What does this fold into?
Amino acid sequence: MAISIIADVLRVLRVLLVLLAATAGVQAQPRTIAGEVVDVRCYEKAADNAGNAHVDCALSCARRGATLGILTANGVYTITGEYTAEMNKRLIEFVARTVEATGEVTERNGRRTIRIREIKLVTRNS
It folds into this structure.
């Protein structure tokens, strides 16, 4: 009986190893999105909580660690990962400004996220 249990455990381990090997090399390809960095909660309350009229509030919330996102033509992508560390320290300069962000984009249950690898301001030519 003990040999049967050991054989079953080994079969399960083999299956797990095959699954792990199959997914080990698969990573999401980075995507670039463009839009305004917004306070997600404020924007969800009212769509006009963005842009120049909302800069002071957005900065205040961001400095307190509020969840930030990038408002694009396709909706809001919540920012996740190391850029949100230390109360959004690395994002403060981008709040209420238009950016291009590259990173891993996911969508789950209707919510979009981006784990930023690189972010830069979009400058507009006059």
Q: What stands out?
A: Residues 31-121 form a domain with the OB fold (Dihydrolipoamide Acetyltransferase, E2P) fold (CATH 2.40.50). The radius of gyration is 21 Å. The longest strand covers residues 98-108. The chain has one domain: 31-121.
